[in-house]
Each structure stands twice: as structure tokens, then as C-alpha cells.
Specification:
The complex is a heterodimer of chains A (108) and B (452). Chain A is an all-beta fold and 108 residues long. Chain A is built from no helices and ten strands. Helices cover 0% and strands 39% of the residues of chain A. Chain A has a four-stranded antiparallel β-sheet with strand order 2-3-4-8, with no helix packed on it. A three-stranded antiparallel β-sheet of chain A has the order 1-10-9, with no helix packed on it. In chain A, strands 5-6-7 form a three-stranded antiparallel β-sheet, with no helix packed on it. Classes of the chains: A mainly beta (108), B alpha+beta (452). Chains A and B meet through loops of A and loops of B. Bound molecules: FE2/S2 (inorganic) cluster and fe (ii) ion (FE2).
Chain lengths: 108, 452
């Protein structure tokens, strides 16, 4: 379990997202009203960046075919997506936001 | 019993005899050019697919991903600001089965996804994702199926596009007209910005009535617009005697563009804008506005008042009221007007508000002056439902022979304000393009398989 610093919290204001590359592939980090979540960035349906999508509450809507995912669980909430994306553990150290890129998994 | 067989011409357009429709020497024009459906179809190909067409103002789409849905004649297109700051304009038509790729007026997009089967295009119009691609389109080369791209160029804040790969560069296309266009686009440091939204309405008339009037027709003003002029007269701003005003008209040496204006004492322009807005907006200083523009223009253009202009074929400005508009053609008998306000970036908020009020009250869907113009065009168009009316030639001789070069400190082909020299220039360009089949898309091969 290795947590890697991704950004400082004020770089990603509430409602915003950040896309970052990792050994596990691109990962999207979201700020939901001050709480941070990390999921696989590539939509499980159409190969598109979820960080580019529209975040409403804890749901991210892909801009390509409007599939929605929960950023807490990685689960697909709407068609056309049916498969989930992985979630990654997030940790806060002071101002810094860290992600464990080795810890990617599908939520139960 | 007798049988009458009516044979329709098998070959549709182009099968129209144009030899007699415009005679510049004689100063005549045949009204079939405003009503004939075959001529209209020819115009779409020979005029609109070969000319530079106005798309949007730069300030309509400032940020990457900002888009504006509009038309190039009848073809729907999307103009999108790219990440590198450039603008792309592409056909709003999915390459799968032709659905619109974008169905909203404007906004900011990360991608454009067709709502029919879901083909998705990036903001540059490149096809990036096809649903079920592996199963259903194995081996599809997506790079060959992007949206059709138009050529795009800008001139001082105005974005234009054309389908014509052989068209000259935009600056060259505008040519010597630029000097008079700059009175509007470059009258202050920083140029112009668009204000308000796009006001859209439909007028049942041919697009050339509108384009020609803004190009050339100062003449109708004192007759057609008597009522909004009279209604706005005050002691402070009495009526101007139009016969006493000196004014000029300019016919571009190439391309069919034209403009006309009065030369007026300092401040007349702003007096007009104030009175037509029914009052001075608090905090607006007309003196300062006038000196700013006069200093920046630096020559006789500082005295220009009430300037009308058209860029061939269908973009016009009336700078007396700071209104810019496109006349989108919709068949021979209808146009969609898309209008917006144009102000100097350097103007104060109060000045921008002064202009906005004035433009709304005079030249917009419900504007007083706008009603006068539309009423004429609609009525002329209705008359042309008559067979005999369509065979009856019009007089377009005003000011013929009175044209001079480099007159009165204003460069180029100059006439008096009340002339039809610029209109003859517009129809000469129209006639030239309509009579020339070279370089039309049917000559080039009508079917485009892939975006380059
Ligand atoms: S028409 Fe656009 S995806 Fe089929
Ligand atoms: Fe008018």
C-alpha cells in the first residue's frame, strides 16, 4: 500500500475533477463538497475520460454517451454503461491529497 | 378529345436562362431572381458554397470548447473554439446516417455525440467513438469519418468560413472594402465585442432584398423610416435635413461588397443613438466616445454617420444602430434573420448599455425601424406571386454615370449616398458567380467520402 501525492486540496475545488496518469492507467480524482474520491478515469462503456465529465453530487456523467457513475463506489448508475469502474483509496495529509494506485478494486 | 402532355424538364438546375436577368449597362433587373426556385437552388451551390460566409463574432466563443450552432446558407454548421485558440467550423451532420451532431444553440462542449446511434465526435469534429465498434464496425478507420470541415478565417473579430478550397484568403476577398469595414470593426483600441444574445426572426422575403438594401440603399430612409424618425425628434435633437447632408456610397472593386454613409458634424452619430434610445443612459459620455473613435480612426472616417454595409453575400451591419446580422436564406421566399449588437470593447458599461437599448428599440425583431424595412420586403415578395409581376423589369439606374474614383478624400469607387452603384456591384458579383460553373461542387464531384 503506497499512497502517492496527487495534488493539494485547493487545486481541485468542490465539483471539480483532476485526471492523473498512473501505473494502473489514468485515474480521476473528484472533490465532492470537500470529500475526495478516486476512480478509474476511462468510462467502462465508451473509452472516454470521466474527469472530463459533469459532476453532480457524487455522480459523474460521461460527456460522450451520458452514462453516470457513482464516484464513491465506481458503480454504473445509468445506461448505456453496465460495468463498474475501479475505485482507489484516498488519503488526506494536511493540505495534500494522496491516492493508493496499487489499491484499485471493484466495490463489493 | 385532345390530350395535353406537360413535360417537365428532366434536368433540373442548372437549366435556367440567366442571360437577361441583370443588365448593368441598361440598369435593369428581372425579379425572377427573387422568386424562382431553380435559381435559388443554383444560388446555394454557385453563390453560397463558393463565397466566404459570416459565422460568428470571436467573442461568441471565447473559451476552448465553446460552440455556436449556425448555418452556412441552408447547411447547419457548428463553430467551435479549439484548445489551441483556433476555430473550427464543421457540418452539423453525422457521417453515419446524417443526424445533427449538435442540437443546441450554443454552450461549452467536451464532445458532440449524435443522439441517433451514438457516434461521438471531439470538439474538432473528429470521430472518436462508435458504439459497439468491435462487433459491428470491425476495421472502421475513424479518421476517415470525421465531420466535413470548412475553411475558416477571421477578420478583426468576425469569423468567416467557406466550402471553397480555391477561394482567395479572406483579407483578399474583402479587398479594398476593408477600409470602410474598419470604421465599424477597428474604431477603437481592442476592436469590437458582441453584446446581448442572438435575436432571431423570420421574414417572408428573398435574401437579396435585405443584403442589397444594407449594401446600397440610403435612399429609402427618409420615406420608409419617417415615423420612427419623427417620433424621436426632440428640441435637443431636431430632425436633420437629409438633402443637406453630404454622403457617399462605396462599391468594392471586387466581390460585391458595398457601403454608404453620411459625413456629419462631430457627435451626430451619438446624438442619433441617444434620441433613438429615448434618452441618455446615466454615466454615458458621448463626447468621449466620439473623440475616442475619431482619434483611433485618424482620418475622415471619424465623421462617418449612419453607415450601412453588406459583405457579399449575406452579412450586413447598420452602424447607425450598431446592429450586425446574417440573412440566412430559406428558399426563394424566406429568410431567417440572426442579429446581434456590436460595440467597441473599449466602451464604458454605460456606452454599451446606451447601444444595447438603442439597437433593441430600432433594429431587432420588435424594433421600430426594422418593421419598416421588413414591411417593404414582404410586400415586394407578395407582389412577385403574380406571373406578370415576375416578368416586369425593375429600374436599378440611380446614380449611373455619376460615379468617380477617389472622391472627396474617400478612396475607391465613390458615388453620392443616394445611388445604386453598390447594388449594381452586388448584382454584378451575383451574376458573375451564377454564370460560372467552374469550381462548383458538382464540377468538383459532388460526393465527399472523407474529411481530409
Ligand atoms: S446517425 Fe449519427 S450515429 Fe447514426
Ligand atoms: Fe431601413
Amino acid at each position: 500500500m503506497t499512497f502517492v501525492r496527487v495534488c493539494s486540496e485547493n487545486e481541485v475545488p468542490p465539483g471539480e475533477a483532476l485526471r492523473t496518469e498512473s501505473a494502473a492507467g489514468p485515474v480521476a480524482l473528484f472533490n465532492v463538497d470537500g470529500e475526495f474520491f478516486a476512480i478509474e478515469d476511462t468510462c467502462s462503456h465508451g473509452q472516454w475520460s470521466l474527469a472530463d465529465g459533469y459532476l453532480t453530487g457524487d455522480k459523474i456523467e460521461c460527456t460522450l454517451h451520458m452514462a453516470k457513475f457513482c464516484v464513491r463506489t465506481g458503480k454504473a448508475c445509468t445506461l448505456p454503461a453496465t460495468k463498474p469502474v475501479k475505485i482507489f483509496p484516498v488519503e488526506r495529509r494536511g493540505e495534500d491529497v494522496l491516492v493508493d494506485f496499487d489499491g484499485g478494486r471493484y466495490a463489493a | 378529345m385532345m390530350t395535353v402532355i406537360i413535360r417537365r424538364n428532366e434536368k433540373r438546375s442548372p437549366n435556367v436562362d440567366l442571360s437577361d436577368v441583370f443588365d448593368e449597362q441598361a440598369g435593369t433587373i428581372s425579379p425572377v431572381i427573387y422568386s424562382d426556385p431553380d435559381i435559388y437552388q443554383m444560388e446555394l451551390e454557385r453563390i453560397f458554397s463558393r463565397s466566404w460566409l459570416f459565422i460568428a463574432h470571436e467573442t461568441h466563443i471565447p473559451k476552448a470548447g465553446d460552440y455556436f450552432s449556425t448555418y452556412m446558407a441552408e447547411d447547419p454548421v457548428i463553430a467551435v473554439r479549439q484548445k489551441d485558440g483556433g476555430v473550427r467550423v464543421f457540418l452539423n451532420q453525422c457521417r453515419h446516417r446524417g443526424m445533427k451532431i449538435c442540437r443546441t444553440d450554443s454552450g461549452n462542449a467536451k464532445a458532440f455525440t449524435c443522439t441517433y446511434h451514438g457516434w461521438a465526435y471531439d470538439i474538432g469534429g473528429n470521430l472518436v467513438q462508435v458504439p459497439l465498434e468491435e462487433q459491428s464496425f470491425p476495421g472502421l478507420d475513424k479518421s476517415k469519418w470525421g465531420a466535413r470541415q470548412a475553411r475558416v478565417e477571421s477578420y478583426k473579430g468576425l469569423i468567416f468560413a467557406t466550402w471553397n478550397e480555391e477561394a482567395p484568403a479572406l483579407a483578399e476577398y474583402l479587398g479594398d472594402f476593408r477600409y470602410y469595414l474598419d470604421t465599424v470593426l477597428d474604431a477603437s483600441e481592442g476592436g469590437t465585442e458582441a453584446i446581448g444574445g442572438i435575436v432571431k426572426w423570420i421574414i417572408p422575403c428573398n435574401w437579396k432584398f435585405a443584403a442589397e438594401q444594407f449594401c446600397s440603399d440610403m435612399y429609402h430612409g427618409t420615406m420608409s423610416h419617417t415615423s420612427p424618425i419623427t417620433a424621436a425628434i426632440t428640441e435637443e435633437f431636431p430632425a436633420l435635413d437629409p438633402t443637406a447632408l453630404s454622403g457617399f456610397q462605396f462599391r468594392a472593386s471586387n466581390g460585391g461588397h458595398g457601403t454608404g454613409f453620411f459625413e456629419a458634424p462631430a457627435g451626430t452619430s451619438w446624438g442619433f443613438r441617444i434620441v433613438q434610445a429615448a434618452g441618455l443612459v446615466e454615466g454615458f459620455d458621448p463626447e468621449a466616445a466620439h473623440s475616442r473613435q475619431a482619434a483611433h480612426l485618424g482620418d475622415k472616417r471619424g465623421t462617418i454617420f449612419s453607415q450601412h454595409l453588406s459583405i457579399f453575400p449575406n452579412f450586413s451591419v447598420f452602424n447607425g444602430a450598431s446592429t450586425a446580422r446574417v440573412w440566412h436564406p430559406r428558399g426563394p421566399n424566406e429568410i431567417e434573420v440572426w442579429a446581434f449588437g456590436l460595440v467597441d470593447k473599449a466602451a464604458s458599461d454605460a456606452e454599451k448599455e446606451q447601444v444595447r437599448l438603442m439597437t433593441l428599440r430600432t433594429f431587432s425583431a420588435a424594433g421600430t425601424w426594422e418593421q419598416d424595412d421588413g414591411e417593404n420586403w414582404v410586400e415586394v415578395q407578395r407582389v412577385l406571386r403574380g406571373h406578370e409581376a415576375r416578368q416586369t423589369k425593375f429600374n436599378i439606374q440611380m446614380g449611373a454615370g455619376a460615379t468617380r474614383n477617389e472622391g472627396a478624400d474617400f478612396p475607391g469607387t465613390i458615388s453620392n449616398a443616394y445611388a445604386e452603384e453598390a447594388a449594381r456591384g452586388l448584382y454584378a458579383q451575383w451574376f458573375k458567380l451564377m454564370s460560372d460553373e467552374e469550381g462548383t461542387s458538382s464540377k468538383r464531384g459532388a460526393y465527399v467520402h472523407a474529411a481530409e
